[in-house]
Amino acid sequence: INLGANPVLAPAAIYQKIDPPTxxxxxxxxxxxxxxxxxxxxNVLRAEVTTTAYSRVNMPGRxxxxxxxxxxxxxxxxxxxxxxxxxxxINFPKIPGADGSSGPGYFDILYLDADTLxxxxxxxxxxxxxxxxxxCDP
Length: 138
Prior knowledge:
By secondary structure, the chain is mainly beta.
């Protein structure tokens, strides 16, 4: 999925909250017109994709993923906080016979230390660099 290819929404921020084995991928989206005309009142829609990671047997450095759920939450509408608007979410169906140790989702760790993770995604591909921060105020 190429988030930048969406004609209506553009990614404004992408980050993760990790509490092993669970990771929540957080993507703040803004109307594309807002990214082109920054003087407009801000509108932000937050997508949260929850995954669970599993080690792969006999494959050191490979991490299997199971996608659990997605939630969409309005954060800001026309410059005003949208706390009163409810989130919309779904749980992904489980693939019979597939789990994180054998399912189709995975990534390969290329480098890992206390502050940095570099990995290669299996499909659609790509290399990613993540750095640890003590606190993130989205």
